[in-house]
Amino acid sequence: MDSLIPLENIPIRGQNLSKSFRRKGGAEVALFRDLSLALEPGEIVGLSGISGQGKSTLGNILLGLLPANEGSVMWQGKKLEHLSREECRTLHPRYQKIHQDPGSSFSPRHRLNEIFQDFFRWGNHSNLSDREEWNRKLREGMEKASLSEKLLLRYPWQLSGGELQRFALLRALLFDPLFLVADEPTSRLDSSVQARVARFLAEEARERKIAVLFISHEETLLKVLCSRILHLEASGLKGKNT
């Protein structure tokens, strides 16, 4: 990506990233080597590739959840390992992930309203001053996502996959993210629900200037949703604009 945006305004950048693992018996297997990428604010970039090639691993490395064997990750122009404790505390909640299985984002033992209140209580929300503002933003988001307030009184297992995935996206959006990894977020949904979830994500990302790495095997969906698509191979990334 050739960009004129100052480095400190680029929310996520990976430089010369390599990742490998050892099989039982000691053989080392490379997922990818010397990989570099950057996403600008509001940009939705697709990531495709065969299963087991390391797409989810790359997303987790960019989020600071896994270390790379080599290379560095930069958040807003600073290497992760150089961030101060206060910078980490402020920035970490703004680097979010949506999982393939939306049920994994929520405890099955609590109703949605209890879960979202716990998110407020224990999260670090530099963009929200009080619980009233949190609840207002939650309800505004639910209206945008076509989710009834009655659903807040239900347990996660009482919701459809599409409803639960939209709640997972709302949870991420409440942290005012700079960067979001959407890891196969529509793969377990039927086609009509896929389109609704993907459209909601795209609208919010572009309106809020969130950089999104959208991981999927669905090439048609990626072509509609993304400004460019990167294909992950052991030798690195191959990409094209859409």
Write the layout of secondary structure elements.
Layout (H helix, E strand, L loop, with lengths): L11 E11 L5 E12 L4 E5 L6 H8 L7 E6 L2 E2 L5 H7 L3 E4 L13 H11 L8 H14 L16 H13 L5 E5 L7 H18 L2 E5 L3 H7 L2 E6 L2 E6 L1
Parallel strand pairs: 3-8, 3-9, 6-7, 7-8
Antiparallel strand pairs: 1-2, 1-4, 4-5, 9-10
Helix pairs in contact: 5-6
Please report the distance between the alpha carbons of the first and last residues: 14 Å
Given helix and strand content, the structural type is alpha/beta
Which word captures the global form? globular
- The radius of gyration computed from the alpha-carbon positions, rounded to a whole number of angstroms, is 18 Å
Total beta strands: 10
Describe this structure in words.
This protein is of the alpha/beta class and 242 residues long. The protein has helices at residues 55-62, 85-91, 112-122, 131-144, 161-173, 191-208, 219-225; strands at residues 12-22, 28-39, 44-48, 70-75, 78-79, 95-98, 179-183, 211-215, 228-233, 236-241. It has a six-stranded mixed sheet with strand order 6-7-8-3-9-10, sandwiched between helices. Strands 2-1-4-5 form a four-stranded antiparallel sheet, with helices on one face. Strand 4 and strand 5 form a beta hairpin. Helix 5 packs parallel to helix 6 (191-208). The longest helix has 18 residues, at 191-208.
